[in-house]
Design goal:
Radius of gyration: 18 Å
Mean pLDDT: 90
Strand content: under 5%
Largest sheet: none
Low-confidence stretches: none
Number of helices: 11
Length: 220
């Protein structure tokens, strides 16, 4: 939500909330489903092989997101040691989350490409909502690839590192989390206290790359 803090309207907020609800449901389902394919029995045992949002969304974090623009939206109880191939099975299960958001963004972007421009010209609010849906799922894709604990990107990096480097990576997990929290605080400060946007490093990084990917997906 920090990416849109300067131009929030009620329809835009509703579009972002809907995108978060659908995006995170698909995200967590993808984690669980691929973990299930890789041999982890917990997702099936806990009934997480479903697209029911109530199963995947962490509601306190979701309502926190609605109120302040940031929160832990969901979680997946997957573990490497329960998989047939602990290293690459876990990598696949973790990577499935952000990749699923990119797929959702592409599917929504195809709607913009297929529907005639004349329709969008007459339905600008709907066009803006679909565009935000695409952009937000691209944002989820990029955000979760950040190599900061506890995001997916940190876990993916851990699995591909050699043992010695992986040990160092785990040892400094909290350092990466502090860096991540610092980036979040800078983004809030830039949005809430009228600081120069150069302070919003996270917004600039994800906004620039996210905007470019969104343009490629929608063709606009």
């Amino acid at each position: 939500m920090l990416l849109f803090a300067n131009s929030l309207t009620v329809p835009l907020m509703l579009a972002i909330i809907l995108a978060a609800l659908i995006g995170m449901t698909v995200h967590e389902f993808a984690h669980n489903y691929v973990a299930h394919l890789m041999g982890d029995p917990v997702p099936e045992r806990e009934g997480r092989l479903t697209l029911d949002p109530s199963v995947h969304i962490y509601w306190p974090g979701f309502f926190m997101f609605v109120l302040i623009g940031f929160g832990i939206l969901g979680f997946a109880p997957i573990a490497a040691h329960r998989m047939r191939n602990p290293r690459w099975g876990y990598f696949a299960a973790v990577a499935a989350g952000p990749i699923s958001n990119l797929i959702v963004a592409i599917m929504a972007g195809m709607i913009i490409r297929i529907v005639p421009l004349s329709f969008w010209a007459d339905n600008l609010e709907l066009y803006r909502a679909v565009s935000i849906f695409v952009l937000f799922n691209v944002f989820l894709f990029l955000f979760n690839l950040l190599p900061c604990f506890p995001l997916d990107g940190w876990h993916m990096t851990l699995t591909v590192l050699p043992s010695e480097q992986a040990h160092w990576w785990q040892k400094h997990a909290m350092t990466s989390q502090y860096i991540f929290l610092g980036l979040i605080l800078l983004s809030f400060a830039a949005s809430s206290f009228m600081l120069p946007q150069q302070f919003n490093l996270l917004g600039l990084l994800l906004g620039e790359i996210g905007g470019a990917i969104t343009s490629m997906i929608t063709g606009l």
